[in-house]
Amino acid sequence: MNTLTRYSGLSLLFAASLALAQPQPQPASDGLYRELGGKDGIRKVVETFLPLVLADARIKENFADFDLDQLNLRLQEQFCELSGGPCRYTGKYRDKTMDGVGTVRDMSTVHQDLKISNAMFNALAEDLQIALQQHGVSNSAANRLVAKLAPMQREIVTVKAPTTSPDLGKLLATGGVSQVEGAGGGGIVPWALISGYGSRDSWGANLHYTYLSTQDYRLTSYGVALGVADRLEISLANQQFKGSLAPLDQLDIRQQILGLKLKLAGDVVYDQDSAMPQLAVGVQYKRHQQLGGLGALGVSKVQQLGAKDDHGYDYYVAATKLVLDQSLLLNATLRATRANQMGLLGFGGDQGDSVRLMPEFSVAYLLDRKLALGAEYRRKPHNLGVDKEQAYYDVFVAWFPSKHVSLTAAYAVLGEITIFNPKQQRGAYLSLQAGF
Ligand code: HEM
Questions:
Q1: Which of 50, 61, 71, 146 to mutate to test the pocket of ligand 1 (most atoms within 8 A of CB)?
Q2: pLDDT digit string (tens) for 306-349?
Q3: 266 CB-near residues (< 8 Å, 6+ apart)
Q4: What count of Cα atoms within 13 Å lies in the side-chain half-sphere of residue 93?
Q5: Contacts of 402 (CB under 8 A, 6+ apart)
Q6: Which CATH fold topology does 31-156 show?
Q7: Same fold for the domain at 31-156 and the one at 168-435?
Q8: DSSP reduced 3-state for 335
Q9: Domain map (residue ranges) of the chain
Q10: Quick check: 136 pLDDT over 90?
Q11: What's the burial of 103, exposed, middle or buried (CB within 10 Å: 0-12/13-18/19+)?
Q12: Ligand 1 test: best mutation among 95, 113, 114, 126, most atoms within 8 Å of CB?
């Protein structure tokens, strides 16, 4: 299959997935309403949800002095109507000055004076996810309800609340995990997500340690990433690649990667009502630190293996779409690179030295709000005669027990590495991320 057919096939795949994301006008179905347990189920969820909100230090103050019985009824109506149930949200409001006759108020009118920030909006959404889970509502039904509420962020959030302290204001798992080059994303592909849990009014950071072991090689990566205002990501990672099979059993390659990523447009959570993905651009500066263990062959620099340089830049654009009502995350990344084995074997070479555009894809299914299962593909250029560079693949499971730690386990295929050892390198990948 030639490259062109493969690219167009993969891009078609991503376009089709985005088309999937485009909310199609659905005939009024009460499927979600029934999965929520009908009126009785919704009442029980709201009656668990509101006490969670009133106990939530992040937002409870906002509800002081309001008629919570009224709010309870209105929320039940709203969730019933939104889920296709036989209800109409009335929003009728009786306050102390009026005689019980009011006007139906949209979400922006209701919330306009409440000074709600993104972090508060997300806190409320998390409390709702917990209430739904406590009532045994399926993950996909819970995601479908949240998918209907998420775009209301544009109406409900009215303030920016800049804070110097980390606010943990993003929904669980929406900072991604740490990719082997240190960027926020999947395991081998950077996504358009900004690392850490800082909302647009704050910042977050995390450390990662990743270990990948194949039949004949071990790759470790460790580093730190900072996410500022859910807009800018700065990361620094160190990679060490070691051999275990003679004559490469002393191989010890090290490189350092400095990454910058800027979110350009879209929001992975709030844009549930459009096909628009979150878009980001990034650059990774990679510098070789060491090529050890080939002294016997008289080799101490990657240029002696045919590489043109021992440092270089990768540029990428990433589009990440969270299709909540399908519990799916889709990502496509296009990387401009001349790196060999992500830079571990230098940049450019005897087989090619031009910057090539390489596609990378990830798909993940959200099993619940703490667990995702997925797969990734990363195509790479073949510049070096001594290296049989092939695409990387992995299947992964990522667990987010809290916003402070995530654990990712994967089975990764790195393809054949050197022509001297024509064996598909495959093995276990484990990554720990800790932060806020
Ligand atoms: C998707 C998110 C949200 C939805 C769907 C939602 C829905 C509603 C509904 C249906 C009402 C009743 C309106 C009425 O009585 O006419 C309401 C009122 C209220 N909401 Fe929200 N809300 C959301 C987010 C928030 C957030 C993040 C806060 C604060 C942290 C908040 C604070 C309030 C308060 C204080 C009231 C009472 C307002 C009043 O009675 O005048 N809401 N909301």
A1: 71
A2: 999 999 999 999 999 999 999 999 999 999 999 999 999 999 99
A3: 192, 276, 277, 278, 279
A4: 16
A5: 172
A6: Globin-like (1.10.490)
A7: no
A8: strand
A9: 31-156, 168-435
A10: yes
A11: exposed
A12: 114
Decide if 190 contacts 183 (C-beta within 8 A).
Answer: yes
In this structure, which amino acid lies at residue 370? K
Calculate the CA 369 to chain-centre distance.
13
- Tokens representing residue 136 in the block: 């045994």
Beta strands in 101-231 (DSSP E): 177-178, 184-185, 203-214, 217-228
- Whether pTM > 0.85 for this model: the answer is yes
- For residue 280, the surrounding DSSP H or E stretch is strand 278-292
List the structure tokens of 210: 């990743």
* pLDDT for the residue numbered 95: 47
Burial 315-346 (b: 16+ CB within 10 A, else e): ebbbbbbbbbbbbbbbbbbebebbbbbbbbbb
Please give the helix or strand (H or E) that residue 372 lies within, else none: strand 371-378
Which DSSP letter does residue 303 get? G
Residue 91 CA, closest ligand 1 atom number? 16
Q: Whose CA is nearest to atom 9 of ligand 1?
A: 75
Instruction: Identify the band that residue 96 occupies on the pLDDT scale cut at 50, 70 and 90.
Output: very low
Classify domain 168-435 at the CATH class level: mainly beta
Distance CA 245, CA 217 (A): 8
Cα gap 130→318, rounded to integer Å: 31
C-alpha–C-alpha distance, residues 42 and 73, integer Å: 10
